[in-house]
Design goal:
Helices cover 31% and strands 22% of the residues. It is of the alpha/beta class and 267 residues long. The strands form 2 sheets. A 6-stranded mixed sheet has the order 5-6-7-3-8-9, with helices on both faces. The chain has a 3-stranded antiparallel sheet with strand order 2-1-4. Bound molecules: adenosine-5'-triphosphate (ATP) and magnesium ion (MG). The site of adenosine-5'-triphosphate has 10 residues, from helix 2.
Length: 267
Amino acid sequence: MATDVHGPVSPKTADSASTAAVRVAGLTRSFGGRAVIDGLELTVRPGEFVALLGRSGCGKSTLLRVLAGLDREIEGEVSVPRRSAVAFQAPRLMPWKKVWRNVLLGLPGRPEREVAERALGEVGLSHRTDAWPKTLSGGEAQRASLARALVREPDLLLLDEPFGALDALTRIKAQRLVAELWRRRGCAVLLVTHDVEEALLLADRVLVMDEGVIAYETAIDLPRPRDIASPRFAALRARLLDRLGVEGPADDSLADGPAGGGLADAA
Ligand SMILES: Nc1ncnc2c1ncn2[C@@H]1O[C@H](COP(=O)(O)OP(=O)(O)OP(=O)(O)O)[C@@H](O)[C@H]1O
Ligand SMILES: [Mg+2]
């Protein structure tokens, strides 16, 4: 389990890409003279599942956009696999294209419908292949968005609060789906979430972003599937909530709030 985010950085990004899925060194991103990301260091191993927590506005989405190659106005070094894919909180489906065409959107060449069908099958959406996006439920739209990411066969899957808008039950199903896809595909995952329990259920390692850097990290060496009721789970949850600046006793009452152990009150 990788625990060192401050390891030595090779200046040759092509070389370092072979030993790490993500390698970020001295990353700075400013808006109007304010550094939102400020000398950030990060390494993610191939196949590693990393969750990223942090207060609202601390720069998580900014970091993900940089890793996804959507923002290049940066200082520092960023190395990611050639095949990366991103899914955002809002599914961002084109309303005038059927689901399967949405899944293939932006893929190079002229991919066959079967490629979309396979990915939709993986997320349990085969029956919605020909549907229009506006007829999908929230959970279905989220799964379509996931299929669109999977179709790229990514070595790095970037997920920005993909379950944020889902009801509790759909959210649990979506979490299980991501866990299973990750196991099957073996890609590295960087999941941004506000939900401490979600991070602890899914990740090999949890990071906390603060003041523009990775301010804290901890390896989650609990066996899978994880038992939310276990004392070790509770201890890790308490420690993370503490790091996130959530006030009060670190007991179960914290996890029973509306955010399910999340950061709504801390943000
Ligand atoms: N294009 C932009 N122009 C100006 N400021 C920006 C821009 N994008 C982000 N910011 C600012 O950078 C900071 C970090 O934003 P970011 O979206 O990365 O936060 P976040 O950690 O993802 O928050 P949340 O948890 O609420 O999604 C915020 O203060 C935001 O206003
Ligand atoms: Mg965000």
